[in-house]
Every structure is written in structure tokens, then in C-alpha cells.
Design goal:
With 650 residues, the chain is α+β, with helices and mostly antiparallel strands. The protein contains eleven helices and 30 strands. The strands form six sheets. A nine-stranded antiparallel β-sheet has the order 13-14-16-17-18-23-22-21-20, with helices on one face. Strands 8-7-12-11-10-9 form a six-stranded mixed β-sheet, with no helix packed on it. Strands 2, 3, 4, 5 and 6 form a five-stranded antiparallel β-sheet that branches. Bound molecules: MU-OXO-diiron (FEO) and calcium ion (3 copies).
Length: 650
């Protein structure tokens, strides 16, 4: 099965005999059929990892602190409420209003992009900055995924905050989500923000944005406030994202449905009602619409269609207007990451983070020309979006989401390409894409040129509903797939509509009794993994300069230990054999991971610390990172360095 070189065909192969075999043999077969034991994506089998990942592994724990290997230090770089300008003064969470929040770092930091600053260039000169590899000074570009009033403000329980948040607090929340740009520099005292830098900026739910691409202006995007259907205020649910070689940042709109209240069943248009249901809009959602009518679908039934997109903006130009890119489709975007090869179209990979949703690929209509940024800046506005079909035997196909092709026709309720993009989930399901176990980051390893899909978990996958790429029913631990486009390492054809895939690893304890929960890793050498090396629920991923994979998790506490970072080789004897590098304080997940170009700093987001049952602002489980009785727990960005100045992980 693993050496099957058969080329994908246009029809999905159904092989009941093989299917029964996989089920009968359970998880071990799935891992063997997948890549855990495969030599790897690259033709080269260098074993660089043993020297590159030389840090002393940390143990699984669960306490109120963060943890690093010996020889490493973490600078506390930005916390919720830290000022972006020099005049804001100290943070006083008890007296926070919306105006004050708008000049401070937002809540629940998630994705991080480090955008280097070229010493000789200034604001508005992104063309110069984007060629820099400066690892000592740059822009920290950070998403703020969502807000939690019961941990931000006095007087709420988690339950009471859902429908009962006060108007002033909702106004603060709308300034605490979105995105921050902060100039940072590496000083003798470690990494620090540059207060009052002209680059410092907040993007919030009131920031004006354009909507561009094939769905822009469509009647389904028009509202009473915006009859053009091409302008919108703000962004929400900003989870992960990506960067472009022309110096812009991509930020994803993931769980936007939770911002909207109202009953989809009361929306007259059937297509729209189904659409709103698909994104979890319900009368039980947060009560923002009580005060800000556009978040009530009874008042503005089209407003949710203006969210769920990827947003592109230029961090080097603080006055630039962000753009929602409809060409990349509308769903619960985890992020989109690029493969940019000179003289070829831009290829971008992304996932829709929900149970049984899909992995996507975008191929630009235009060609990437390094240095011609006026041209490059339009590359993500026009192209073809595809959804992934992962077949048994390791073959895969990218299926185009194009109006008029296959079932994407008027008979099936699609009027035009705008409908295909707005209702991407329905379109992808109709064309036969493979329903996955919650796709999170999808990112390409720049060293071996293969693409990795983080699948965080899927408790809703019923027995009998497994497929080759999602082999476990009630998948609690998640897994990682490796996509291998045709060609050799460094020259792979990401534009090809066919690919090979394999299972890189299955999350979970490798010694778990239940086969459904048992992890499978690339342990080709005995003794390379300790009892602390396994993890579950892969979410974000980064690659270091050697091509090692750094996985950030979201969910390990349900297995009894902290979320954190695990690093591993993608090639050679130690392929898919993780080593535990970082641990979060209890209640937190970790997001971000982002290296400086020289590999000497690793930025991480610690999101929702102390977010456990009954933990509130008034009585939190702990107060990381300040441990100050006057401060609540605060989501924060850390800059991790090796004390001797070497590259992280080496
Ligand atoms: Fe916001 Fe997909 O995690
Ligand atoms: Ca998250
Ligand atoms: Ca995530
Ligand atoms: Ca997640």
C-alpha cells in the first residue's frame, strides 16, 4: 500500500475489501499505511535532526507556569493591555474603556508574523522591507482571536457573560479582537516593544476594509450600511494566517459565527438560513447584536456573509486599508500559507477548522515575479480555489471550485461564482472533497517542499465514517498528513492537480490501550522517544531553517498535561519522532510559533491562560504571567531565545 505509485484518476476509487482490512486491523494499520514508517517526502535521507534538535526535552506537566528546556530564556514581550504608544500609561483592567483598549495590545493572541524592518527604509516602503532578513528589529504582527468577558472584566461567570455582557464591555471586546502591529527590537535586555513607533497599529472590528475578488459587490454581501457590498468594518475570529513575499500579512477569519445572534430559521431565504446554520449562528450566541445591530441577523441577514474570509494587509504601511480576499473562499479559515516560486503561479494552502470540513488549495491566475510588487499584490485576488480529495492508497486530487463545472450549477442553487465562494463548504462537499478531522494549519516545509496538514481532532466522526486520511472514529488526539506534490525536493509541482499523501503521525499516547486513542510516531530507532515526547491535537506549525517541524497543540489538557510545542525531523531516521520543547501554564493553548529569519528567536502566543472551569476575573485559577493580585491572567507573546545566543533547537 505504501509503495503504491499508481497515479490518481478522476474517479474516486472505492475498495471495500481494503476498507474492511483497515478497519479490522485498526490504528496500527492506518499508521503503517501512512507515513509514520515511511522514509519521508524528500529523496535525500539526511539525518540532520539528531544534531539540530539537541535541546534537553522537558516533561509533561500541568501547573501555573510556562516551561522551557535548560539553557533557554523567554522574554515576556506583549501582554493583553500593554500600550502601543508612549502615553497610554499603566494598564488598569478595572477601568478599561473601548478608546483605551484601541491603543493597547488585544486579547487572546494567536497567529504571529515577524516582518523584518530594513534599517534604511521607513513606513510605506514595504518593497524595501520585504527583502530584509533583519532578525534584530521588525514588526510583530499578531492576531487576537476572540474575547472572554468573564476573564477580562469583573462581575461575570462564563454563563452570565454569554447573553449578559454589558454594552460598554462589548465595546471593549470589539476593540480587543482583531490584530496588532507592534515594532519590536532585540536589545541588551532582550526583546522589547518600541512604544510610539509609527508602525504600531490596531486593526479591530471597527477598521474600514475593502472586499475584493469575484464575490465583491454580490447582492449577498450588501447591507443597509453598505449597499455596494464591497466595504466592511472589521474582522473577527482571527485565528492563524500567513505571510507573502511582497511584504503583506494574511489573517484568517475563523469562528466568526459566534459574533452573530438570531435564529437562522427566521431568515426567509432558504439558502441564507442554511448558510447561517452552517456557521453556528443561533439565538444562544453572544449578545453583541443587542447593542450593535449588524450582529443581529434579524436586522442584517447578509452581514455574516461579509465575514469568514482571508484578510490581507500591509504592515509596513500603517495607513493601508485591509482587504478581504474572496478568491480564497468563505469558511472557518484557520489560515492560508504560500508557496511562491519565481515564474510560477502563487500556490496557497489552507484549512477549514470544523468537523468534517475540507483542506483547500488556491492557485493564482497570475505569475509571481519577485520584485514586481505592484503586480504581485494582485495575485491573491484572482485564481482558482480547489478542495482536497484524499484517496485510499495515498493518491490525492485537487478538485476545482468553479461555477458551472460539475455539480456547481443553478440546479444545485449556485447562481454564480460568488455563490460558490460564499457557500464554499457546500460546494466542496458536492464535488466530492474528503471530509477531514478539523483542518488547522496547512503549511509547506521550505526544505523538503512537502506540505503538512494539522488535523486537530474530530469527536463527531462516527464508527464506519472513517476514511483513509481520517482513519480513527471519534478522533480525540488528531493527526498530521504529509502532502507530496510531484517532483523532487525543491522542485515539487504544487500547481499539479494530483499529489501523493501519507499519514505523517497519529497523535496520542503510543501506549494507549484503546487502538482508537493510540498514537503512532516515526520511531525507527529504539529509545528516541521518551514518555514526554508524545502529544495530541496539533494546531499550528512552523518549520525551522533545517526543515524541522515545530507543532503547537490545543487540547493536551484532556490527556492530563499542558499544551505546548513539540519539535521533530521530517526526514531521516528521526522523522516524526517528536521532542517536547515548551509547555503552557494551565488553561492555555499555544499558537503562533514563528522564527526570526536567523532562527535565533522563536515567538509564541500563549492564549487563554487560566481558562478552566469556574475560573473568572474575580477568582482566576492563576494570574500568569504577572502573578500580581491586581492583574488577571493575561494572554501574552513570549520571545524564546537560547541563552548562549545560538539558534533555537540546535
Ligand atoms: Fe482557532 Fe483553528 O483554531
Ligand atoms: Ca485558538
Ligand atoms: Ca488554531
Ligand atoms: Ca484550535
Amino acid at each position: 500500500m505504501t509503495n503504491d505509485n499508481q497515479q490518481p484518476t478522476s474517479a474516486a476509487p472505492q475498495n471495500p475489501a481494503r476498507r474492511t482490512l483497515i478497519k479490522a486491523l485498526g490504528v496500527a494499520t492506518a499508521a503503517t499505511a501512512g507515513g509514520g514508517l515511511l522514509p519521508g517526502c524528500s529523496a535525500e535521507k539526511k539525518n540532520a535532526s539528531r544534531q539540530n534538535l539537541a535541546f534537553a526535552e522537558i516533561p509533561h506537566r500541568l501547573d501555573h507556569h510556562h516551561h522551557l528546556p535548560d539553557g533557554y530564556a523567554a522574554d515576556l514581550l506583549m501582554r493583553w493591555g500593554d500600550p502601543l504608544d508612549g502615553f497610554a500609561g499603566n494598564f488598569d483592567p478595572e477601568n478599561l474603556d473601548a478608546g483605551e483598549q484601541a491603543r493597547r495590545f488585544g486579547y487572546n493572541n494567536d497567529f504571529i508574523a515577524f516582518m523584518p524592518l530594513a534599517p534604511e527604509a521607513g513606513p510605506g516602503e514595504g518593497d524595501k522591507h520585504c527583502q530584509s532578513r533583519n532578525s534584530e528589529r521588525g514588526l510583530l504582527c499578531v492576531n487576537h482571536e476572540y474575547t472572554q468577558p468573564h476573564l477580562m472584566f469583573a462581575g461575570y461567570s462564563e454563563d452570565s457573560s454569554i447573553r449578559g455582557t454589558s454594552h460598554p464591555h462589548i465595546a471593549v471586546e470589539q476593540q480587543a479582537c482583531g490584530h496588532s502591529v507592534v515594532e519590536i527590537e532585540n536589545t541588551a535586555e532582550g526583546w522589547q516593544p518600541v512604544l510610539g513607533s509609527p508602525y504600531n497599529r490596531r486593526i479591530t472590528l471597527t477598521t474600514a476594509m475593502d472586499i475584493i475578488g469575484a464575490a465583491a459587490g454580490d447582492q449577498r454581501l450588501q447591507t443597509s450600511e453598505d449597499p455596494s457590498g464591497a466595504r466592511v468594518f472589521g474582522t473577527v475570529g482571527n485565528c492563524a494566517g500567513g505571510k507573502t513575499p511582497w511584504g503583506t500579512v494574511l489573517i484568517a477569519e475563523e469562528g466568526f459565527g459566534g459574533a452573530f445572534q438570531g435564529d437562522p430559521d427566521n431568515v426567509a431565504d432558504e439558502v441564507e438560513a442554511r448558510n447561517h446554520h452552517a456557521f453556528g449562528i443561533s439565538p444562544q450566541n453572544r449578545n453583541w447584536g443587542d447593542y450593535d445591530l449588524r450582529f443581529d441577523i434579524a436586522v442584517e441577514p447578509n452581514e455574516p456573509n461579509r465575514f469568514g474570509w482571508m484578510v490581507e494587509y500591509d504592515p509596513y504601511d500603517p495607513g493601508s486599508r485591509p482587504r478581504k480576499l474572496t478568491a480564497l473562499g468563505r469558511f472557518e479559515h484557520e489560515g492560508f500559507t504560500l508557496v511562491s516560486k519565481p515564474g510560477q503561479p502563487i500556490v496557497a494552502y489552507g484549512g477549514d477548522d470544523d468537523e468534517h470540513q475540507f483542506v483547500y488549495r488556491f492557485v493564482s491566475s497570475g505569475i509571481y515575479h519577485p520584485g514586481d510588487n505592484r503586480h504581485n499584490r494582485e495575485l491573491l485576488t484572482e485564481g482558482t480555489l480547489y478542495a482536497g480529495q484524499f484517496r485510499e492508497g495515498g493518491a490525492g486530487m485537487w478538485l476545482p471550485l468553479v461555477f458551472g463545472q460539475g455539480p456547481l450549477t443553478e440546479e444545485n442553487g449556485f447562481r454564480n461564482q460568488a455563490d460558490v465562494l460564499i457557500d464554499c463548504r457546500r460546494a466542496a462537499k458536492l464535488i466530492g472533497a474528503t471530509p477531514m478531522d478539523r483542518p488547522e494549519d496547512v503549511e509547506t516545509n521550505p526544505v523538503n517542499d512537502c506540505t503538512y496538514v494539522m488535523l486537530t481532532k474530530n469527536r463527531k466522526r462516527a464508527e464506519g465514517d472513517e476514511n483513509a486520511a481520517n482513519p480513527r472514529a471519534r478522533n480525540t488526539a488528531g493527526h498530521v498528513l504529509e502532502i507530496v506534490p510531484p517532483g523532487r525536493s525543491g522542485e515539487r509541482d504544487h500547481v499539479s492537480d494530483s499529489f501523493r499523501w501519507n499519514t505523517f503521525l497519529l497523535g496520542g499516547n503510543p501506549n494507549a490501550e484503546s487502538p482508537a486513542e493510540r498514537g503512532a510516531y516515526g520511531q525507527q530507532l529504539p529509545g528516541t522517544m521518551s514518555e514526554h515526547s508524545w502529544f495530541a491535537n496539533p494546531d499550528n506549525v512552523a518549520f525551522d531553517q533545517h526543515g524541522n517541524m515545530w507543532i503547537a497543540t490545543d487540547g493536551c489538557e484532556s490527556f492530563g498535561f499542558h499544551d505546548g510545542l513539540w519539535a521533530m525531523a521530517t526526514e531521516g531516521d528521526l522523522r516524526a519522532a517528536p521532542k517536547h520543547f515548551f509547555g503552557c501554564p494551565e488553561g492555555a493553548e499555544i499558537c503562533g510559533p514563528e522564527f526570526t529569519p536567523d532562527g535565533k528567536t522563536l515567538f509564541v502566543s500563549v492564549q487563554h491562560p487560566a481558562d478552566t472551569d469556574n475560573s473568572t476575573f474575580d477568582n482566576p485559577l492563576h494570574r500568569w504571567p504577572d502573578n500580581d493580585p491586581a492583574m488577571p491572567p493575561r494572554p501574552s507573546v513570549l520571545a524564546i531565545r537560547r541563552k548562549d545566543g545560538g539558534a533555537v533547537g540546535s
